[in-house]
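Lecture 7 notes: from sequence to structure.

We start with a single chain of 320 residues. Read the sequence below before looking at the structure.
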Amino acid sequence: MRTIDWVDGAVEIIDQTVLPGELKILRLHTVGELVAAIQSLAVRGAPALGVAGAFGVALAARVHADDPQALAAAVHRIENARPTAVNLARGARRAAGLLRQGPQAVLDEAFRVRDEEIAASSAMAARGADLIVELCGTRPRLLTHCNTGGLAAVTVGTALGVVHELHRRGTLAGVIASETRPLLQGARLTSWELTQWGIEHRVAVDSAGPFLMARGEVDAVILGADRICANGDVINKIGSYAHALGARRAGLPFVVVAPESTVDLSTPSGDAVPIEDRGSSEITPWAPAANPAFDVTPHDLVTAIVTDRRVIRLDHSETP
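Now the structure, written as tokens:
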């Protein structure tokens, strides 16, 4: 099942806010509905957001075909619905580049964005599985953070796609899914996807990850990214940095899996990335709270970055 697609003139998504209790399909007919779905995290994950951005512009091109000012405002609104993940703005701008050719050209480009992300998932799964076996042997026990499966990437996924491929090969020994506070994308979404695939796993609170690594229950940490900077700094869901520190202390590989569309050479380092703060209400109603949605893992804590085209070994070398 595709977690985001264009069906009969509307964007269809799996509503990730109600999983795992309910599998609900939302049909989004307007830019306003799409932006609300992005901001509420009904659709999330860097590759899926890139597709959402492109399909959003396709919606705008149909609704505002005769109003250039309204069309430009709609595209701007889509691009800026969430500021940290680079794929959203890239997908929107890519589709917007075809606006002068008409709504059908924009939609065709959005389909290309979708299809490229689907193909990228398959390529990353194979490359990542090969790398994990190279680093950890044939029976790896993996810890993953946030959600990086098909829900985040249309089909299969990024880091979780690698987990799925290892399971398919019969070489996966175990998975620990970090719960991922405050919205529990690991406990709700990753656990749900692993269950759908028949992969045995355990959910652990975020703060348990480094301890489980130190105790010898993990062979590698594998996760995705919302943006990869030119110097190799990785922007990902809050909690990733702590897992990177735990992996370094335990001497474990820390592997990032993300498509080339997430690599942002125009951003020199993590210091230049706006980090979204989602406010106190997601954490506590009775006190002010710091709620950054993402953190920055410095490149020197990253063992390797796997994309659909290459493996970048930050620990020593790049392989084709």
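The mean pLDDT is 96. Keep this in mind for problem set 3.
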